[in-house]
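Hi support team,

I submitted a single chain yesterday and got back a structure, but I'm not sure I'm reading the token output correctly. Could someone confirm the output below corresponds to the sequence I sent? I've pasted both exactly as they appear in my results page.

Thanks,
R.
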Amino acid sequence: MKCFKIRVLPFILIFILLNGFGLFAQDLSKVDSLQYLIETSKNDSIKVYLNVAISREYAKKEVLVSLEYGEKALEIAEKSKNPKYISYALFNLGVQFFQQGVMELAIPYFYRYLEIHKELNDDKAIAYAMTNIGAIYLQIKELDNASEYFENSLEIFEKIYADSEKPGKEIISIYNNLGVIAKQRNQSNIAIDFYKKGISLARRTPGFETELSNLLNNLGTIYMELEEFDKSFVYLSEAFELRESKDDRSGLIKSFLSIGKFHRSQQKGEDALASFYNALELAQKVGVISSISESQYLIFEIYHEKAMLDSALKYHLLHTALKDKINNENALKELQQFEITSNFREKENLFQIELDRKESNIKLLSLISGLIIIILGLLYFLANNRSRRLRLEKENIILNSKNIALQKTKVENELTVKTKELATGVIYQIQKNELIKKVIEKLKKLSISERKNQTVLIKEIIVELNNAQNPSVWEEFEIRFQQVNDEFYDKINEINPPLSTNDRRLCAFLKLNLTTKEISSITGQSYRSIEVARTRLRKKLNLTNTETSLVEYFSKI
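Hi R., thanks for writing in. Yes, this is the structure output for that exact sequence:
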């Protein structure tokens, strides 16, 4: 049970604050109690409402302190980001500035309050905000703006109370304000129409006696100014009776003054004087200084008109003294207003300086971020270009490698062709020599058995064929072979310098990948002789105990 009480306490406090603030503030008469609750509470909503409560406690004592707590409430509300708490704190500050007469500072809070409830689609709160903004404009005599906001709020309230049998008090008050605006514009008929609409609504339901009496008194006053005295007296009297029945002292002061002015307009000085005295007496009891001053001045005027100079002087002096007091109070109030405004402006300037500093920091950070982005962009661009350049270089290298490979292949193919051509030429030349040799041998045999004349002819042919043989064919072969394989013989000499001419020729044939049969055909040697020569060559090249063939061996040289 104890744990349950702890948990529900914040919700009970919120309920009291929302639904019975006046009672809550009265119960916590000491500010220390409120401050203690703020310090011990962890709930933002409670802190907001408690700071507003303290603000209102200080409202009539220390205005600056009151505003300070109001601003604390707003600060906590804004940190909570709860629009209802924010609007509550805004409304409080708006009312505080309004009550202190600093309208220029009050209106921004009501505007913010209005915007929040527009986002929340809270029609009633929107209408209240517009009503308060209209009241501010009425106070500073901006009648067009005042009229616009009152009319807009009236339209919303009429929709809200459209299905209700009891008209809203707000509507009645707005009609009264619209009547005041019309009267200040010297639009008497329009003012009368607004007052009558308000009176009609107020008469329909009990509980609106205060609003009704104000409307009646205002309507009676305007009829008096229009010199429709019968109507004026009816409405002024009804307002007086209603206020008297409700013991509305502030209202009765206004009624005594209005009725006194009515009697004065009817040249009934004694009745007027009696009403002004009643107003003065009641105003002194209630402590309404402005009504005391007005009553004294009206009494002075009556005595002055009656040439009762002593009494006139008395009330003139009383009025003058009170007027000086009022002026002093007004001066103090104006000084206080100036102090409030200066304090607010100072905080606003500090806030603006802090805001400018933050904006400067943001701009600086943005600039630095921009520079970093630019630098990173440049680095990326350079890296990308370098990457592209390296890629292109790599592609060029690959392409060059391919070109080199192609060229190598081409050279190798050309070398192969030339080698084949060389081999073919050599073979052809050798075959030709062999053929010539055979023909010579046959002709020699023929020359022995034939006649003498034929012998001479045949000898001539033999001489010519002998002359046709190219004894330097092998030398030419070696020269051409060396041109194609310029380092071959050098490498052979490095391996085994004492190779014979026949060994060197055999090496060349094997380099050309000729078979034993082809070598036999070219050289005229027997197959067996060539095989023996090959075996002998393997020994000289130290290839006896290896599986490497001579063709394979010479292909690598």
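A quick pointer for reading it: Residues 309-449 form the longest helix (141 residues). Let us know if anything else looks off.

Best,
Support desk
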